[in-house]
Amino acid sequence: MFTIIGGDGKEYGPVPASEVNGWIMNGRANLQTKARKLSEELWKTLGDFPEFAPGAAVTPPPLAGEAAILSVPAAPQPQAEDLLARAAKLDIGACLSRGWDLWLNHFGRLLLAYLILIPISVALAFVQLGTLPVASMVLSGVFTAGLFRYMLKLLHGKPAALSDLFAGFREAPGSLISAGIATAVFTLLGCFLILPGIYLAVAWTFTYPLILEKKMPFWPAMELSRRVITRNWWRMLLLMMAAALFSLMGITALFIGIILTLPISMCVLTCAYDSLCNPQKTTAP
User: Fold this and answer.
1) Are the CB atoms for 284 and 44 separated by under 8 Å?
2) Do 1 and 37 contact (CB within 8 A), yes or no?
């Protein structure tokens, strides 16, 4: 299993050597690309590994489609262990500070995004099967993933468009819808015992951005989110409670105030996701 540093400076993997060979053949990587094995700390170039040396046997790349995009493997355990090994403990203060700055620096754009999404969410809530809001259960994950995408781009200073809010419909609708249904069902079942429901609701917070940003199938994404957050579960719960309090500051100004401050909570969660699932690490020169 190998992790590489892409041309955008981000880390991709760990993935099998066959998939890295596919990236090389598709021009997404070359023998000068920085890489390391999952079990090693030292970064080398791909050309330093015998698996990618000129003349080495090459396994055909994956078929075109989602599997051919830079992605993480379906099995969550190696990826979770890699993230847990590299990521520090969740810093609640840093996430609140970064989230607050994100909200202040992009207030107008975030407000516009919420003015688009809130009416959609309200409309979906009225589509029910008995007492269950089935439309929200099915589609909320798609919109949540798009909002994470939009905020992550703003956080890293990348060009962000309102069309990013609907990226889930283009890139991974099946996995996001499946995750939304599975999350709702298991959380509801867990609520009968209260504590399991609370645990799962927090532990699966990063499921949707993992599906969209890491190109993961829904169940591996749910399991990866659970494993990564479990290590920081109490910190994550406290962060979510603090973020909710920030968002509810607008209640003193009634509806208009709530709309203005509502994005803060999502900004904070975006920063938490970035901290735990995109940990930065200095590479070898």
Assistant:
1) yes
2) yes
d(CA 108, CA 184): 32
pLDDT digits (tens, 9 = 90+) for 21-73: 877 776 678 888 888 887 777 888 888 888 886 655 444 444 443 333 344 44
Dist CA 22 CA 177 (whole Å): 29
Strands 34-37 and 11-15: unpaired
Domain with 52 in it: 2-71
Q: Is residue 159 part of a domain?
A: yes
Residue 125 has a CB neighbour count (10 Å cut-off) of 12
Instruction: Check whether residue 133 and residue 179 sit in a common domain.
Output: yes
Reported pTM: 0.68
Give me the DSSP letters along 21-76: HHHHHTTS--TTSEEEETT----EEGGGSGGGSTT---PPPPPSSGGGSS---S-H
**CATH number of the domain enclosing 19:** 3.30.1490
